[in-house]
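Methods — Computational structure assignment.
A single polypeptide chain was analysed. Its primary sequence is given first, followed by the predicted tertiary structure written as structure tokens.
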Amino acid sequence: MTPAPYRARTIVTHGPESTGKSTLAETLAAHFGGILVPEYGREYCEIHGTDCDAQDLLNIAAGHNAAVDAAGRKTDGMIFSDTDALLTEVWSHMMLGESCFKAAPPRISGALYLLTDIDTPFVQDDLRVYGEDASRQHFFALSEAALKQYGVDYVKISGSWAEREAAAIAAVEARFSGMLTP
């Protein structure tokens, strides 16, 4: 599979639910002046519910890929993607015990992944499923294992919200120093 040309400038927030991925992606897009691609899975589940089967998860991955593609056509700058198909594969392992990607592996959208740690309090909402400590630990382990399995560049983001923001900005600056304008 040939990577899309915008992949070289895409940053993906990756990790378990309620670890600040959306907030971090929004903050980074505002800080660097990039395009934000919101989490498509949340929108999908608001309409269809959280009892997802393999086809639902493939639909989520396809919808998110389409949104990242659209963003890539609109900018020559940075794209900040709140999750991607790789995290959808992790969700598949959490929900179904196996990957929903039988025909082909999930598309790797980012040049840099920011893995959000579970060292923040879990905040329940109508769509969140895995709030227990053991589930969060398992979800985090699967998230990191997926990054390692596909050999993607990632930085673990931990600590307070201020520490997370600072670490994420530093990671983006280090990875994309040649693309940033003063």
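Note: The mean pLDDT is 89.
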